Amino acid sequence: MKVKIDSERCQGHGRCYDLAPDLFGADDEGYGQVIGDSTVPEGQERATSLAASNCPERAIEILQEA
Amino acid sequence: MTVDDRFSRDFQEMRADRPIGTRNEIVTGPVSDWATDFSHTESEWAADPYRIQDELRQRCPIAHTERFGGGWLPTRYEDVAAIAYDTDRFSSRAIIMGNFRPPPELAPIGGSPPISSDPPFHHHARKLLLPAFTKHAVARREAATRAFCHALIDALEGEDVVDAARDYAQHIPMRVIADMLGFPPEDGPRFRAFIEGVLEGVNLPPDERLGRMDNLFDYLLAQIHDHVGNPRDDLTTYLINVEFGGQKLSSSHVAGTMALLLIAGIDTTWSAIGASLWHLAKTPADRERLVADPGLLPTAMEELLRAYAPVTMARLVKEDMSWNGVDMKADDWILLSFPAANRDPAQFDRAGEVVIDREVNRHAAFGLGIHRCVGSHLARMELRVALEVWLERIPDFGLADPAAVTWASGQVRGPRTLPLRIG
Ligand code: HEM
Ligand code: HEM
Ligand code: SF4
């Protein structure tokens, strides 16, 4: 499972780094960033989808690997 | 020009440069039909806007009014979001729907950037503020906020019935923003009088309102002078030094930005804290559950923000157009109700109920798109700490007199009198 933030859509609501702080962080202006490479570590799948489903701007994309 | 020269000009001088706008005939009194004659300033709306909005969403999802010189009220999430995102066709030149429209030449800057600004200017004005309001930056204020909440509760000692809106909720955002700006703590009561004067003066004649604004600006300019002579690590010093297009901000812009933060940050957060306490006072099951499981609070708080979103904004239509089946005219208002969007059953399951463990909650209480509330991380910290401290210190409370609760009318909604039995 991979995760990506669309920086065109992200407005820095910060729901992602509130709900899944191990996966997402904030830049100096509060916009969301994926920590590390875009691969979701094992055990973090639920936190990832929780963050994605709470982003008001629908800026978080989850890519399921085939 | 030395730094000090910037601050010798008066705010009145700047105001005098402002081009005049247009005023329309004022219409008040009972609404005949909410679909064709809505008004967010009538007492029926203040008492319960949700029932009105839910009914409109089914019957007439983009309602109209001739009042305020003409305006529209979309109540579906989808329409509210589309308008918030469409800054090409809807301007933020005015964000308070009333009987006055500022002139088109004011765009894209507007009277109080960034909230009144359109692209491309908006981006730059907003960028100045963002670093001071990140989650990380506001976390530094949490310990002081918590101590202050405890002190407020200490002062309630011995009372059976307290007004949680006036004696608790109101003080928290006022104190937090005054500390951030670096005002002397002993100025608290004076500063509070200026702010109350401005916030409560909305229905006064224009001259009297401006007089109250001038009192506030005199105070802010005195604070700016003091910070120029004696810079410190606070938001006022930051605004004095920050550069915009290679230049520092003029004194009127530093004072104006301080005023914007005061006005945008105080009664909004006050409303959110008050509405949350009101809900918990009248819903023992939710209150008991949160007392037993404080870890649920962050989730519950988002649900309370969804259900009782305090802030409604406005936009002005830029040009005549047909939009989603209605004929909008240039300069028609849009009453952009984030509270209505948040209760749309097409977007939320059980939209009309408060579900404090709701997991999926894409609510729009802090807006959508480029104007997303700059203060949202600060407001969330204040709301969480205010509720944590209250529930820890006063786990058992209820409405003392449901009929005595009063709600602010207009575009920021929250309890202004909230008698709670705590003893
Ligand atoms: C619970 C409390 C609050 C709520 C519900 C709230 C809500 C909102 C909303 C809905 C907007 C969007 C405006 C639009 O789309 O036109 C907004 C913008 C804004 N808010 Fe808040 N707000 C709150 C607290 C605060 C605080 C504490 C501050 C700062 C001290 C603040 C500062 C601002 C500013 C500066 C903007 C303009 C942002 C821009 O235009 O880019 N707000 N707020
Ligand atoms: C981030 C903060 C701000 C920035 C970067 C900013 C910047 C600017 C700029 C670049 C102009 C155009 C100046 C010119 O064309 O000579 C302007 C005009 C103006 N600004 Fe600000 N400003 C800020 C905050 C404010 C606030 C908060 C207020 C009022 C409460 C304010 C009131 C005005 C007024 C009244 C004008 C004149 C508008 C006109 O005559 O068209 N500004 N601002
Ligand atoms: S929740 Fe969405 S909008 Fe907010 S910071 Fe994360 S990605 Fe950006």
From TrEMBL, chain A:
Pfam families membership: Fer4_15 (PF13459)
Coiled-coil segments on the chain, per record: none
Keyword terms: 3Fe-4S, Electron transport, Iron, Iron-sulfur, Metal-binding, Transport
Cofactor dependency: [3Fe-4S] cluster
Database matches in Gene3D superfamilies: 3.30.70.20
GO molecular function, one term: 3 iron, 4 sulfur cluster binding
Protein name, as recorded: Ferredoxin
Organism listed in the record: Acrocarpospora macrocephala
TrEMBL record, chain B:
Pfam family, one: p450
Record PROSITE patterns: CYTOCHROME_P450
GO MF terms, alphabetically ordered: heme binding; iron ion binding; monooxygenase activity; oxidoreductase activity, acting on paired donors, with incorporation or reduction of molecular oxygen
UniProt keyword Oxidoreductase, yes or no: yes
Family matches, as InterPro entries: Cyt_P450, Cyt_P450_B, Cyt_P450_CS, Cyt_P450_sf
Keywords annotated in UniProt: Heme, Iron, Metal-binding, Monooxygenase, Oxidoreductase
Stated family: Belongs to the cytochrome P450 family.
Protein name as it appears in the record: Cytochrome P450
Organism of this sequence: Acrocarpospora macrocephala
